[in-house]
Amino acid sequence: SFTTTAKIKIFLRLYCFLQGTVLNSWKVVWVVLADDGIEFYKKKTDSSPKGMIPLKGAILTNPCQDFSKRMFVFKLSIAKNQDHFFQATHLEERELWIKDIKRAIKCLQGGKKFARKSTRRSIRLPETINLSELYFLMKDQDAGIKEMKLEKDKKVFNHCFTGNNVIDWLVSQGKVRNRTEGLMVAAGLLNEGFLQPAGELSQAGAENSSDLTLLDQPDAFYYFADSGFYCEGYSSDDDVIVKEEFRGAKVKQGCLLKQGHLRKNWKVRNFILRDDPAYLHYYDPTKGEEDPLGSIHLHGSVVTAVDYVPDAKRHDVEGNLFEIITSDEIHYYLQAATAEECNEWIKAIQAVAKSGK
């Protein structure tokens, strides 16, 4: 049952690189800062961590200069000379991590319990509620919440659902006793990033300072964090639907070599970087810019220079290489013509990934 004593902990979470101590390789992981350690998960939706780095007696090094071609790296050294390296997506994110990790270490030294400060009050949930398990059940194709195409304010929202759909499902599945309890659980799912707001009404509700941030309304739209959601809007000039991902201003354009995902061969593609929303589209350079061959959603992604590509022969491509890893852990390898051009692309993509939605 719901009580006033059980609380859900508020942690600092993000996707970042974590360097392995055995294979000396970098992996994208979902990281959680707890009160006594840093837990890391293979995916955001995993219910149990792959490992934990204890913070008691740990030493933090920032900035870390051990990797000349990797930016925004910090190092956490623990007992027995074990070093763990992390790479954030941008400077502000790294500094936020450093600030909270230092506070956590200081609390442990003083025998206190670390609790990250939050602008929102803690959401009170029973210990029996497992938000990760609920998320998986919600996404079940047969018994879960149905994703739909919804229209509002001359926009089409694809792969989403309404706030009252969420509460209806929680009540009908016996996960909560009533709609009030359903709002509390839904707020937890929203605050933990499992659900995302779509549209002005739900986004305004998510920014509310109160506990209940999910709106139990038929015109408040939401979507699953790892769904195929995208928004389309009717053009003001005509009735042609323009995909939301093409609405952003062009930030940079040029040709790069791109490695294919299946055959691993390299081809020249014309790339267009757009901001707000943050997308990198690529085209056949012999054709126009009407139909892209593909797109890379950059929000929350990590981009960095690399010395080589794991699946390519060393003599195939050399120099001016960089890698993009998206928030859903898809790797893209690209090569610029010169070192200067490579650096310009990396900086431009990092800026867009940080600021664009």
From TrEMBL:
Secretion signal, residue range per the UniProt entry: none
Gene Ontology CC: plasma membrane
Organism: Electrophorus electricus
Matches recorded under Pfam families: DEP (PF00610), PH (PF00169)
Domain DEP: 141-226
InterPro entries: DEP_dom (IPR000591), PH-like_dom_sf (IPR011993), PH_domain (IPR001849), Pleckstrin (IPR037370), WH-like_DNA-bd_sf (IPR036388), WH_DNA-bd_sf (IPR036390)
Record protein name field: Pleckstrin
GO biological process: actin cytoskeleton organization; intracellular signal transduction
Keywords, alphabetical: Acetylation, Phosphoprotein, Repeat
All residue ranges annotated as the PH domain in the record: 9-106, 249-354
